[in-house]
Amino acid sequence: SIGLKINSPSIGLDAYGGDAYGIRGASLQTGVIGESRIDAPLFGISNPVIAGVRGIAHSSDGLGVYGENTAVEGSPVGVGGVVQASEGVAISGLNFGLFGPSTAVKGVAHSPSARAIYGESAFTSGTGRGVQGTSHADMGIGVFGETTSATGVNVGVKGVSLSATGYGMHAENIEGVGLFSKSTEKAGLISVSTNGIGAEIESQNNYGVYAFSSGAAAIYATSESDMGGYISGSSSGDDLVLGGSSGRLVTDPDDSESELFLEAQNNVIIQLDKAKSNNAALLVLNSDGERVFILEENGNLTITGTLSEGPGFQRSDKVDKIYDAEVATEAIKNQQQLIEEQRLEIIKLKKKVESMQEALLEIHKYIKSSN
């Protein structure tokens, strides 16, 4: 059972092995076991280190406790920790360094597909966590992941969920920002899905998506095989609202030949003066900003150009009336112009007659004076 038993109030056994082992234990099960039988803090000692096994190294590159498993198959463990308490910690690392990037627990693996630190929650129900990080600093980071390679598609922190209703990554903040993503040269956030939604963002009482840019378009959407953007509001709400005192919908300003194409499966409806507080009109401007088409909300229409019939043009009764009125107006204008021309011609003839009468009077006077 027990090969050697020593009772001592200080050091039970002190052994020095030079360049080899100070103490070596071999067994079919446990080579060395250390036990601390104190189940409460020592009286008069603040935060005592009570340990079943404690290792101390004085070398700057040394290891206080070193565990090695030489098995090349199965799932061997170099150092394992087991506790029975529900709030206990199987393996705990403490670093009392006050400055610099001190590390409490560090794992190093040399395999190309290895995991330096692996955490697993064995229960298949509940809210168990494979890895949990906690920081109490005002600018601390609970979990920090970093890849130092400057090439390749590496990932700082990755989360995977196999549940159809689960989340690969979940970020939560009660009062602040749930997820903050930042990049200097590339996209701040990339979301990719094979058959589902690339990014789904939801808010109960505020904007689902808020985009801001100080030097470029706030939102840029493109698709290789379908529509660039699909926007849908509630059944009684607006699908798209253009903010500001003047909403603008324009085509690509960098393409001088770009066109605006409006397509509907049924009617295209334009409602003027929904606020019922303006004398509104539908305006069409030319390249100089001049109004060439004005349709007022009361139905009055003003066109500066010529209204003509195109191919396949079919007129309704109302259009016929408008057309006939336009033709009549044009005929009246032409008649008025003809009358004016005739009036001017009559004035000219009258002046000629008056001139001829004056000439005849002069001739009559001359004849009379000669007799």
Tell me what you see in this structure:
With 371 residues, this protein is largely without helices or strands. Helix content is 15%, strand content 4%.
Helices and strands, with pairings:
Elements: E1 281-285, E2 291-296, E3 301-303, H1 317-370
Antiparallel strand pairs: 1-2, 2-3
Indicate the mean pLDDT: 81
Distinct helical segment count: 1
Structural class: little secondary structure
What is the radius of gyration? Answer: 47 Å
Task: Give the fraction of residues assigned to helices.
Answer: 10-25%
Termini separation (Å)? 182 Å
Q: What is the N-to-C succession of helices and strands?
A: EEEH
Proportion of residues in β-strands: under 5%
Q: How many strand units?
A: 3
Question: Biggest sheet, open or closed, and with what strands and sense?
Answer: 3 strands, antiparallel
The spatial strand order of the largest sheet comes to: 1-2-3
- State the low-pLDDT regions, or none: 42-46
Overall 3D shape: rod-shaped
In short:
This protein is low in regular secondary structure and 371 residues long.
Give the key terms:
single chain; 371 residues; little secondary structure; 1 helix; 3 strands
